C-alpha cells in the first residue's frame, strides 16, 4: 500500500515538511473536556435518539415503540455527541487548536460497530466516523483561515475496541476469543472509510493494547487504500498497561515496533495508561529502534483515588521538554486528564526545540 499516491498530495507534503522542521503538537483529551459539561442522558440522546433508539433507523418489518427492545441508555457514549451535540465537540476542537495543536484527533475512539454494540447503535458507525472527521476538518479549516501560515491536520482515530483478539477473557478457556481478526477487520474498514470520506489527513490506530487488533485495523486501512487507489499517512500508538513495561498482549515497546514495522507507518508512538515520567523509558526505546517518526501523548500523570488526573500543565510540559531535549520526540500531545492548558504549556516548551532526527529518512518518504 506504500506505493500508492497520496489522496491529498499537498496536505501530505505539508505534514512531511512540518515534521522535518519542528516537533508537532497533538491535541489533548476529549473525554476530560466533555466531562466538564456534566451532560445528562437527554443531552447524549438529543432529539434523534430521544427514546434511546435511533428515530431515523428502522429495520425491515420493525416499528419502534414502548418495549421494542432497541432502547439503550446513551449517557457516556461520548462519540454520539458528534451527532447530538456537535457544538460541544467543535468547541473542544477549536480550544485545542487555539492552544497550539497542529493535529487534532476525531471524536471517534469508540465509533466501531464493535464498541457501539454496547449502545445498540452499530448502524451509525460509518456516520459517526464521517461526521466526526468533518467536524475536525471544519475546525482545522477555520484555524488555518485565521492563521494561514500554520497548517492544521485532522487525525482520524481508530480505537482499540473493548475486545482482545490475542487473548481469552476466560482464564479457563485459553483458546476462546471474544472477537476474531475478521470481525475486527470488517468493523475497522467501515470506520476507516468514514474517516477518509469526512476529510482526515492522517489515520491513527490508537491506544493499542493488543497487536493483533492493531494488525486488523492496519489490514482494513490497507484494503481501503487499495480500493481507492490512494493513501493517507498512518500513525500507530500503543499503550503500556503493565508494570513490567508491556502491552496487554505481552510486548515491550521494541517488540511492538518490530511487529508493525512492515506497515511502514509515518509515526510509531505510545499513549495513555501512564504519565510522561513512567512512559519515558519506553519512548526512549522507540526513539532508538524506529526508523520512522516517534510520537507520544501521555496521560496527565497516574489516576488519583477518584479516577482523576492531577499533573499540572507546567509539570507535564517540563517533563516532556526533557524528552525533546534528549532527542526523543517528533510529535507530542496529551491523553487522559489533559486539557487545552496542558497543550498550550507543552506547545510553549517545544517551541524552538529540534525534532528527533530520523535514523534513515530516505526509506520513510
Ligand atoms: Zn425498536
Ligand atoms: Zn488516555
Task: Give structural notes.
There is one protein chain. Helix 9 (211-228) links the parallel strand 4 and strand 5. This protein has an 8-stranded parallel sheet with strand order 1-8-7-6-5-4-3-2. The two termini are 13 Å apart. The protein is of the alpha/beta class. The protein is globular. The protein contains 14 helices and 8 strands. It has helices at residues 9-21, 31-35, 41-45, 81-84, 86-98, 113-116, 125-146, 181-197, 211-228, 253-260, 276-289, 313-325, 340-350, 361-364; strands spanning 24-25, 103-105, 153-158, 202-208, 234-238, 267-275, 293-299, 331-332. The protein is 41% helix and 11% strand. One zinc ion is lined by residues 53, 62, 64, 68, 70.
Layout of helices and strands, plus pairs?
Elements: H1 9-21, E1 24-25, H2 31-35, H3 41-45, H4 81-84, H5 86-98, E2 103-105, H6 113-116, H7 125-146, E3 153-158, H8 181-197, E4 202-208, H9 211-228, E5 234-238, H10 253-260, E6 267-275, H11 276-289, E7 293-299, H12 313-325, E8 331-332, H13 340-350, H14 361-364
Parallel strand pairs: 1-8, 2-3, 3-4, 4-5, 5-6, 6-7, 7-8
Bound molecules: zinc ion (ZN) (2 copies).
Residues 53, 62, 64, 68, 70 line the site of one zinc ion.
Task: Briefly summarize what is shown.
The protein has 365 residues and is α/β, with parallel strands linked by helices. It contains 14 helices and 8 strands.
What attributes does this structure have?
8 strands, eight-stranded parallel sheet, alpha/beta, binds zinc ion, 365 residues
